[in-house]
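Job type: complex structure
Entries:
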Amino acid sequence: MKIPLTLNDKKIVLSAEPTDTLLYILRREQLYSVKCGCEKGICGNCTVLLDGTSVPSCKIPMGIIRDSSIVTLEHFKNNPIYQDITTGFNQAGIHMCGYCSSGKIFTAYSILTKYHRPTLEQIHTAIKNLDSCCTDFTTLTNGILYAVAAMHAREGKRTNAKK
Ligand code: FES
Ligand code: FES
């Protein structure tokens, strides 16, 4: 079947079977930031934004995403919040080879956009199942807290510039 959608801000039509997973099709389209891990919706390595919400692409059948907007990490790098997250991760000493970056970054994005000042409990709940073999739980938590601070600092500068 033909499936029209917006992929990384470009309108396209993809050929796929309704039961093909979004993960499979994105990798076919050479968007290799999307990694195949557990294929059970748990590890986060295949995470993308679907209409602005982070989802595991291994659990999304192509048959349900007609006319949706998909953003992968390749394109998300243009978002100012990506800069906040990488600033925070750098401050915490998190180095990323790319294998579990999508899960970590899009989970951080979900936290930053859902909670203005996330509690430790909210962060821990969001990251508890991530396959984050390169980063321990405490360091990832710190990275997200630094990212929250970076976002607030950027937003403060923008507000001051408008005054
Ligand atoms: S491969 Fe999709 S969540 Fe693990
Ligand atoms: S980004 Fe390389 S293992 Fe986590």
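Summary: Residues 96-101, 133-134 surround FE2/S2 (inorganic) cluster (ligand 2) (CB under 6 Å). The domain at 80-162 is CATH 1.10.150.120 (DNA polymerase; domain 1).
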